[in-house]
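> @MW can you paste both from yesterday?
MW: sure, first one:
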Amino acid sequence: MKDTSAHHSAARRPLTASGPTASPSWNILKRCLLVDGIAVLIMVVVAYVFTDVHGVLSVLFGSLLVIAFFGLSLLVGHLFSKRMPGAVMGIFVMTYFVKVVGFAAVLFALGTPTWLNKSWFAGAAVAAVLLWQATEVIIFSKQRFLIFDESAVEGSPAGTATTPDVTKDVADD
């Protein structure tokens, strides 16, 4: 039995490995904004149908607050990943702290506005967080990261890595 469907899709030249994803944080941010943006529009329509303007404002406030604080870390990661790649993890930790404290500060400073519908606010915020995190995990799992630097083996014969000749006697210290 022969598979005739693979005939036209087979590569006629050798396959080459693709490189790492150019900007992982930016790709994740764009996709998360798209998914959460669509969800916000759907929640706004549902809130408008079942409640009044206060429900719509509550949905917008809860979800946009989550989007702003979650998008902050990805934007900072994108901006600093090229300039200071070694410091990206520390910067992510710092922005996580800013997100938690900033989110709490905004909610504490505003208090509870009279127009806020608590159930629509909480539901929209939770939905935005869950969708954002799920999208972030899915897109992150599809990113490609350069783990092995192939330029180290390009100049060596037969593709084997060469190590520098280090012959220092440790006992001379």
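MW: second:
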Amino acid sequence: MKWNLRMVAAQRDLWRPTEVLAAFQQVGFNPSLSKVAALWSGTPVTVRLDDLDKMCAALSCTVADLLQAEPLAAGQAAPECGQRAVGAEEQPSAGPVRPVPRGRRGAGPRSLPPS
């Protein structure tokens, strides 16, 4: 998840992280300026749930307004697109697909670890 604080703050006419910090302090949320700047830039930051409620109260928004889902990368597919486990064979089965372990390349006994 990515923070969407800049757009929500702009809707409330707050244009700088220091203005957002002042709005947070009015509702009793006292984060450091560096934390507010990280939220402002969209950097992933850990926030407690009760502090998230205070942020929403200060900005008159919902949690869904503050958080923005990151889009999938171009090469990634959604899990519903028929991805299979590594090593699974193509078999029409009613149950879940389970991975099959690869065989060892050398059929001989394993060597001992170095002493």
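> thanks! The helical segments are 5-11, 17-26, 33-41, 49-59, 63-66.
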